[in-house]
Structures are given as structure tokens and as C-alpha cells.
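Page 42, continued from yesterday. The earlier attempt failed because a stray header line got pasted into the input along with the sequence. Redoing it now with the clean sequence only.
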Amino acid sequence: MTVTEHIIAGFLFAAALATIPAAAPAQEAALLVQQVRAKLDKVNDYEAAGTMKTDVSFLKVPAAAVKVYFRKPDKLKIKNETGVSLVPKGSVSISLNNLLAGKYQVIDGGADNVSGVAVKIVKLLPLDDNGEVVLSTLYIDVARQLIVKAKTTTRQNGTNELEMTYGKYTAWALPDKLVFTFNAQEYKLPKGVTFDYDDGSAKKKPVTGNQRGKIEISYSSYTINKGVADAVFK
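This time it went through. C-alpha cells are written below.
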């Protein structure tokens, strides 16, 4: 090999090495998402009992005992004692399975810390240009392969945020507690749910600006992979 050939080969090798740092993080992020998804995929369905607190600035909503039902791939229902569904509009991101459904480009977002837990930030850019979800940002506990926080930007309902705390059901990637923050500007309670407005009147106060609402669910138990009837989701 001539001197010139050695120089060219050296340049080509250096160029190849230069692409590795850029590619490796994206590959690691994609692998991590696959691991998280595999953990979630162990749950085909569940019925969970818990308590739900709803915090919407212009409403006074009492805490309620709820049942939460899930079935693959995307069935989710939250009901109170009277059977009234309590899932707010645009709550597709309240289910981690929904966030990881479909096809998407995985982008490495670096590292961060959530409530003292070191996490990997991964952004999911859906390949479906017509889907409701525009971008999901996941904060993943790498050691436990769990999503501890997720931010989802949607086309019609702004940005929602989900935070999870794990305990007894860590092996199933099911949280003991979740906090879902959402756009409450057009939030409406279902028929049959009683509440008071902040001014105590029966007339609804106008809602303006960027109103944020929060739902907090503390789970007491899960029944996993025992089947959930179709009628539950109707």
C-alpha cells in the first residue's frame, strides 16, 4: 500500500469512527424503549382499585373510589362507584401502552434526574403524520426499565404530563400512584357526577387562558391477566 493509500485509508477510518458517537446513543435509546415495551407487554389486561383525586381550578370535585380497567392494545376505562366514566378528553397518554403503540422514530434526549432518580430521556416521534400524538418525551429509569415520567404533545389537546411512582407491582411496570396533568380548558364532568364551582353558584364560570387540571390515582390493588369483559369498555 502506497503512502497516499495509507492516508486515504486513515481518513476513511477516522470518518467511520466519527459516526459512532452519534449513532450509538440513538441505538441505545431504541434498545431501552424495546426493553420497556417488553416489560409492559407482560400485562394483557388488568382491573385495579384505587382512589382518584381531581384538581381543576374552577371545580370542586371530591375524591372518589375508582376501578381502572385496561386491555390490550388500547382499551382503558376509569369508573367511580356509580359506574360513571371519569377519563378526561385527550387522555390517550394516561396509558403507557398507548404511548408506545405504533411506529415512531426514537431520538436520544440525554440524561436527567426525576425526584432523585437518574433517568434517560427518550423522544418518540410518530411516523404517522395524521395521528393525535405529535411527540412523546419519556423519562426512563434505566436500572429498572420503567417510565417514571412522560410528556405528550397532542394535536387537539395540548401537552399532557404523566408521572408514576412504583412499588408493589414494579415487576409488571404498573404504578402504585400516577399523576396526570392535562389541558382543563374544555374539561367537563360526566353526567351523574356532582360538584360545586368555586363561587358556590350553579352557573358555570367562564374558563379562559391556559387552564391546567390534574388527576391523581393511588392504586390499592391490581388483578392482572384474568380477563376484562367487553361490556366494561362500552
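Notes: The chain is about 20% helix and 40% strand.
Reminder to self: strip header lines before submitting.
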